[in-house]
Automatic annotation (TrEMBL), chains A, B:
InterPro entries: HTH_HxlR (IPR002577), WH-like_DNA-bd_sf (IPR036388), WH_DNA-bd_sf (IPR036390). It comes from the Bacteria. This is Winged helix-turn-helix transcriptional regulator. The lineage of its organism: Bacteria, Bacillati, Actinomycetota, Actinomycetes, Micromonosporales. Residues 10-108 form the HTH hxlR-type domain. Keywords: DNA-binding, Transcription, Transcription regulation. It comes from Paractinoplanes rhizophilus.
DNA sequence: CAGGATCCTTGCCGATACTG
DNA sequence: CAGTATCGGCAAGGATCCTG
């Protein structure tokens, strides 16, 4: 059963799905300060399995948000970097962070009040 | 296993989770144009089960994003509306939509190119 | 009308082992 | 080093039935 058509396949939803994905956001944030290798990403983003990291990187690459550069050397070396589109998306994430920092106290207060009222 | 501590419980992640939730966003968008009843939301947001709708509404209420007003009449009538905090969040969603509309063509083109390269 | 309770499926994701 | 392949657990979420 599909959700409302006015939101199922619209551009917004696709972006929302990406934004809502934990690993994707973390990768984008990490790459915001420059190129990184696979292992660097894996080490810094603690808790991510090879499977999920690869899957996330492939998805971001497919969407044109990051580039994947394979250096034909041994041992292998693969670099990941944001495209300009990816940097643009990072701008959005920064906007979200600003909003979050500005309003998290209100949200926390609301939660506390709500939970107290349920007791 | 927790993801990177610098992102697990930070304000950004909590907002990201909310933004990434399909039903929450749809509810916020629907309430952006005014107060609506439970059934109105259920009918308009096609495909949502009573369970998920209630769960979503409770979550939004707990976070102080919407208000829930029970009218003591028969048959029951419950109105939902955005708080000012919820309206502020809606502003964020609008920003995402603008970005999505502006860049979806690039993303689509990247996907097509990527898929073609795999064949 | 506005949900609460229950059951049950599915698909996401983590852990692990293996390879060019 | 940079992945791929496979298995299994677990929780989100859908369908359904029931009630104040």
């Amino acid at each position: 059963m599909l959700p409302d058509a006015y939101a199922a396949d619209c551009p917004s939803r696709q972006i929302l799905n990406r934004i809502g994905d934990t690993w994707s956001v973390l990768v984008v944030v990490m790459l915001a300060d420059g190129t990184h290798r696979y292992t660097e990403l894996a080490r810094r983003i603690q808790g991510v399995s090879p499977k999920m990291l690869t899957q996330t990187l492939r998805g971001l690459e497919r969407d044109g948000l990051i580039t994947r550069t394979v250096h034909p050397v041994v041992p292998p070396r693969v670099d990941y970097a944001l495209t300009s589109l990816g940097q643009s998306l990072y701008g959005l994430v920064e906007g979200l962070e600003k909003w979050a920092e500005a309003h998290i106290d209100d949200v926390q207060a609301a939660r506390t009040a709500y939970d107290a009222a349920q007791a």
